[in-house]
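Retry 2 of 3 after timeout on previous attempt. Resubmitting structure tokens to design endpoint.
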């Protein structure tokens, strides 16, 4: 059974249908916008992270302690097959591969540039990164190279332009091996890739890992074991399992496990800044809705002042009238929130299935490899957080006009026309 206050509140909110519909519509719109935009933000973050790590870094890397900061040739994972045995036993790992890196001089016929030469396992790299898909000129590493004398190489688009080379051109690579010896070879450009990250495309050459290990005297060692997880949520668990496995099986190994936040700190900073700006915009939206509710109830009290005076004159306590007004505010807000949650969830689920085309995305997004569709991600948090904030702030904003009744005097209120 509804109390008399709830019955009165329900009747009162429909005394001015137009005002009720407009106020409920404003709350509904705010909730739809909050649900969709929060889902879009978190969906874009997941897309941004996955796109960025699959260009180069991976979700996790096993490296020698200090290698990420110093990048010294001698700081290696000496026997990566030991790490592979640990990773193979971990659930939620999608793929992993090995890489080795060396800063070298890369020369064409007329030009020389400093570049990062990466030794990659062609098969494993195709599973953990987008290198194979982003090779737009020539082709990816063949299973059996046509020319065993020349090292096959993939070159970044901008570096290829700077060197003035194309598919079929030869490059001379000179650097220092792990043992301090001179490392030199001649490579043949078999493909040119465009990752979407200008710095990466401007500074990298990729060759098969086995040839890299021969040229740079690496033996079986690598610099990075790159891991991709099934989902972002699985990454902390995978990291803990890899660290535990290394500590248990190879306690003397001087190795570190870095996640994507440590590998790409700029990405985390970009996400944090975007989230802060988003929260500010959402607060502004909620405050606008709160003023709408405040205005509605101030008008309601102004129009019904005479009525309140009569009710108090016949013995109705101000506290009971306050309860009625708070109940009106709660009902009005809940109608808008529930309708907004339903509409917001339906709209978000539609775009979650079909995506939002960002083929003409901004330079910021393209720097993180995002140039296609972004899929909003509806979750319990994105469904509830915005409407909960709207409910709390609108109820608080309705308390001020409701509490004004406590200061009313029946005679003065009855004389109000």
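Retry 2 succeeded. Sequence:
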């Amino acid at each position: 059974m509804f109390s008399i206050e709830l019955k009165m509140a329900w009747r009162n909110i429909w005394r001015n249908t137009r005002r009720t519909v407009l106020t409920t519509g404003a709350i509904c719109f705010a909730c739809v916008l909050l649900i969709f935009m929060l889902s879009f933000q978190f969906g874009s973050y997941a897309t941004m992270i996955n796109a960025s790590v699959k260009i180069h870094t991976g979700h996790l890397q096993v490296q020698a302690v200090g290698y990420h900061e110093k990048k010294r040739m001698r700081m290696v994972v000496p026997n990566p097959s030991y790490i592979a045995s640990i990773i193979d036993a971990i659930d939620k790992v999608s793929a992993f591969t090995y890489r080795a890196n060396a800063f070298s001089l890369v020369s064409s016929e007329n030009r020389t540039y400093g570049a990062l030469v990466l030794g990659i396992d062609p098969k494993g790299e195709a599973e953990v990164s987008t290198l194979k898909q982003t090779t737009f000129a020539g082709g990816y590493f063949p299973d059996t190279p046509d020319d065993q004398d020349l090292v096959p190489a993939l070159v970044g688009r901008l570096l290829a332009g700077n060197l003035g080379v194309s598919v079929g051109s030869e490059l001379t690579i000179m650097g220092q091996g792990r043992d301090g010896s001179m490392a030199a070879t001649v490579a043949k450009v078999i493909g040119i890739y465009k990752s979407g990250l200008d710095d990466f495309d401007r500074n990298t050459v990729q060759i098969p890992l086995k040839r890299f290990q021969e040229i740079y005297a690496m033996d079986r060692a690598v610099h990075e074991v790159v891991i991709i997880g099934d989902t972002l949520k699985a990454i902390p668990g995978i990291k803990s399992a890899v660290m535990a496995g290394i500590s248990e099986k190879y306690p003397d190994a001087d190795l570190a496990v870095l996640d994507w936040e440590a590998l790409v700190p700029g990405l985390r900073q970009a996400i944090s800044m975007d989230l802060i700006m988003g929260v500010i915009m959402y607060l502004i939206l909620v405050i606008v809705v709160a003023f709408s509710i405040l205005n509605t109830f101030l008008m309601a009290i102004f129009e019904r002042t005479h009525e309140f005076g009569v009710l108090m004159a016949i013995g109705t306590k101000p506290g009971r009238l306050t309860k009625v007004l708070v109940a009106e505010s709660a009902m009005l807000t809940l109608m808008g929130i529930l309708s907004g949650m339903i509409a917001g969830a339906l709209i978000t689920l539609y775009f979650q299935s079909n995506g939002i085309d960002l083929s003409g995305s901004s330079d910021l997004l393209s720097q993180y490899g995002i140039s296609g569709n972004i899929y909003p991600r509806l979750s319990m948090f994105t469904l509830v957080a915005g409407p909960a904030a709207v409910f709390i702030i609108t109820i608080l904003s309705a308390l001020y006009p409701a509490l004004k009744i406590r200061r009313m005097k029946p005679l003065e209120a009855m004389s109000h026309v």
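Attempt log closed. Residues 4-53+267-414 form one domain.
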